Amino acid sequence: MCGFSKAWQLSREGMAACNKGDFDKAENNLKTAIELSRCKSKKIHRATMYNNLAVVYLMSGKKNEALSAYDRAVSFLNPDHKGQAALIDRITSKISGLRQEVA
Questions:
Q1: How far apart are CA 59 and CA 23, in angstroms?
Q2: Closest Cα to residue 7, out of 68, 83, 22, 39?
Q3: Separation between Cα atoms, residue 26 and residue 80, nearest integer Å
Q4: Phi-psi sector, 21: left (phi>0), alpha (psi -120 to 50), beta
Q5: Between 103 and 47, residue with greater pLDDT
């Protein structure tokens, strides 16, 4: 099922839920958003949603899941694109710090 506008709506609602401390709702909304965005979104959009999911995992104490989601986010980004390369650097910095915490 595709539904890019619904995906963005769920993503926004998921982050709003996260900000209120409702991590289960946030996680569910973001996972559904990612599924809906698979066929009609640009890779940068999926990277953003996986990054948001990583934030939710991190805030809810799920560090290993956060690492996985951050890795997925980076996998959708293009290191040759100036803006995306900067985002890759920020995310990989988070990944490095988180890996040290988990180890």
A1: 8
A2: 39
A3: 31
A4: left
A5: 47
| Cβ(76)–Cβ(91) below 8 Å | no
- Torsion sign (Cα): 38, 41, 42, 46: negative
Single-letter amino acid, residue 63:
K
Write out the two tokens for 53: 């999911």
Note whether 1 and 10 are within 8 A (CB): no
d(CA 33, CA 100): 30
Structure tokens at 61: 């104490």
Q: List, for residues 41-87, the tens digit of each pLDDT value.
A: 688 889 999 999 999 999 999 999 999 999 999 999 999 998 899 99
Q: d(Cα 13, Cα 92) in Å, to the nearest integer?
A: 26
Tracing tokens 């180890």 back to the chain, one arrives at 103
The model carries a pTM of 0.91
